[in-house]
Amino acid sequence: MAAAAIRKRPAPDQDPRVHGGKKPRYVFGSIGDYEKMEVLGDGAYGVVIKARDRRTGKKVALKWLRGCDLRTITLEAGCLAACRGHPSIIEIFDVATDAETGDFFLVMELVDGGRTLREEIWKPMDEDVARRMMRLLLDAAKKIHGAGIVHRDIKPENVLVSMFGALKVCDFGSATR
């Protein structure tokens, strides 16, 4: 009983508490850290923009989510983060916000070549290449399901193909745990 009454003090080097002593639940980056370059694609709920990280010079993809609430953003970002590290799943780096407009942006890896599988399947393809692509997709689905996530929207438009033939499952906007 006595141990339950003891409160731990924050370490002196921790971030100061805000909002009435409470630590903020989410800490987002700033969209000002990214230089927007060109629009890569436009969908029902967002726009994908090619950008450059001003701090590192690295090129990234920004998914601007129009009119989405905090729950929607954190769900998609959380599902992407749970699948982090798999070579056939798009990598998330950060969630950034625009302080002026309140818009949210998912900061993700930029896929060189950036074609969709829909664009690729119309080309003549060797059976071995098709078999390899299917294996990569099944391995990505295994990782997604192993992380306790259901994508709910895997289709050729949501699979990116790099110029080197790597596949990346993207668009976790419909995903759920």
Question: Can you give keywords for this protein?
Answer:
Transferase(Phosphotransferase), domain 1, 26% strand, single chain, 4 helices, three-stranded antiparallel beta sheet, alpha+beta, six-stranded mixed beta sheet
Write a short abstract of this structure.
By secondary structure, the chain is an alpha+beta fold. The protein contains 4 helices and 9 strands; from the N terminus they run H-E-E-E-E-H-E-E-E-H-H-E-E.
Folded structure, characterized:
- The protein is of the alpha+beta class and 177 residues long.
- The chain has a single domain, classed as Orthogonal Bundle (Transferase(Phosphotransferase), domain 1), CATH 1.10.510.
- Helix content is 23%, strand content 26%.
- It is built from four helices and nine strands.
- The strands form two sheets. It has a six-stranded mixed β-sheet with strand order 1-5-6-4-3-2, covered by helices on one side. Strands 7-8-9 form a three-stranded antiparallel β-sheet.
- The longest helix is centred in the last third of the chain and has 20 residues, at 127-146.
- The chain is globular and about 55 Å long.
- The two termini are 36 Å apart.
- The mean pLDDT is 87.
